[in-house]
Write a structure and sequence with these properties.
By secondary structure, the protein is mostly helical. The chain contains four helices and four strands; from the N terminus they run αααββαββ. A two-stranded antiparallel sheet has the order 1-2. Strand 3 and strand 4 form a beta hairpin. Helix 1 packs across helix 2, helix 2 crosses helix 4 and helix 3 packs across helix 4. The longest helix has 15 residues. It is globular.
Amino acid sequence: KRAKMSTPYQVYTLKDVRPADFVRYFAVYLKRSGKIELPKNIDLMKTGVAKELAPYNPDWYYVRAASIIRRVYVRPGTGVGAFTKIYGQGWSSGLGPRHFHKSSGGLVRNILQQLEKAGYVEKDPKGGRRVT
């Protein structure tokens, strides 16, 4: 059964679609297309140092890839360092206030390389990535 995106208005660009809807449907598309290869240790991989466990959603890698490609479209020239800050979060070691920690740079780099290999993203001459 094919999913339909119902909107009360006419859609012209990606910015007109709600981000959650785009990420959900594009993640399903990425999974069905088979253009993205999952890493071997996907079940043990954390998304950042502030996390204790791997994500519970079995398709989290595709969801993160869809989220990254949407953010590259909205803001071209975004690189790995910016994405580690975007997906980072506060972390508390128990006592004291929370401190911000970046997310995993290797994970973001691997997803960007997979998207580049699939033809969705290319390197920007000024730095970062942009949608093809």
